[in-house]
Amino acid sequence: MSVIELKNINKYFGTGISRVHVLKNVNFSAERGQLILVIGPSGSGKSTFLTIAGGLQTPSSGEVIVENQSVDQLSKKQRDKLRLNHVGFVLQSYSLVPYLKVKEQLAFVRKVKPKGNLNDTELKDLLAQLGIEDLVNKFPGELSGGQTQRVAIARALYANPEIVLADEPTAALDSARVVEVGKLFKELADTRQKAVVVVTHDVRLMEFADKVYEIMDGKLQLKQPSKSAQ
């Protein structure tokens, strides 16, 4: 059963002659246990697709269903609660709090969401897997771009969400780190039965994916079907 579904999604920006049709009748679904890539060039609509899927912005038309709940029928408070408890975001902006150390970034997650997070052992393993266990006392301004990206991934996964939505999570990483992140996302899907959706132009992640979609000029199509169906 799908944990996230987009039905006939359209998104427009601007009005009149400046109106741009960013997403065009997009249909998509993801189930637990799947790592799905949505690939496409810059400006193709990838980030808009992801933020609509996670309820961070609303479509111009169509329906988004998360955990069997139609997002557009929820109040703002209900949407916020749904995202907090079920959706983990890894966004290009990283959104780390500049005056908090890495360990404090994680503690902040625990303050906002006291229950259902990874336990201490699982968190320690996650930090080690991402190669950032020695960075917990660093501020974001002391980190490289790749380190910042890995901290943002750890913060999103610490909350132990059922759905992980990642926007270009490997953009600042070298090939060795790309493999580690690919393995981590695959393990989240296979072993922990998460639904992991990654929008990216990084073809190095394709070997880990169960499905690959391509988005071009706002249109989404299946490029590589589920491996179990091949």
Automatic annotation (TrEMBL):
Lipid bilayer topology: Peripheral membrane protein
Pfam families, sorted: ABC_tran
Keyword Membrane: yes
InterPro entries in the cross-refs: AAA+_ATPase, ABC_transporter-like_ATP-bd, ABC_transpr_LolD-like, MacB-like_ATP-bd, P-loop_NTPase
Presence of keyword GTP-binding: no
Entry keyword set: ATP-binding, Cell membrane, Membrane, Nucleotide-binding, Transport
CDD domains hit by this protein: ABC_MJ0796_LolCDE_FtsE
Localization, UniProt: Cell membrane
A molecular-function term among this protein's GO annotations: ATP binding
PANTHER family: HEMIN IMPORT ATP-BINDING PROTEIN HRTA-RELATED, IMPORT ATP-BINDING PROTEIN
Subunit structure: The complex is composed of two ATP-binding proteins (HrtA), two transmembrane proteins (HrtB) and a solute-binding protein.
Family: Belongs to the ABC transporter superfamily. HrtA family.
Biological role stated in the UniProt entry: Part of the ABC transporter complex hrt involved in hemin import. Responsible for energy coupling to the transport system.
Protein name, entry field: Putative hemin import ATP-binding protein HrtA
Source species of the chain: Lentilactobacillus raoultii
Species classification: Bacteria, Bacillati, Bacillota, Bacilli, Lactobacillales
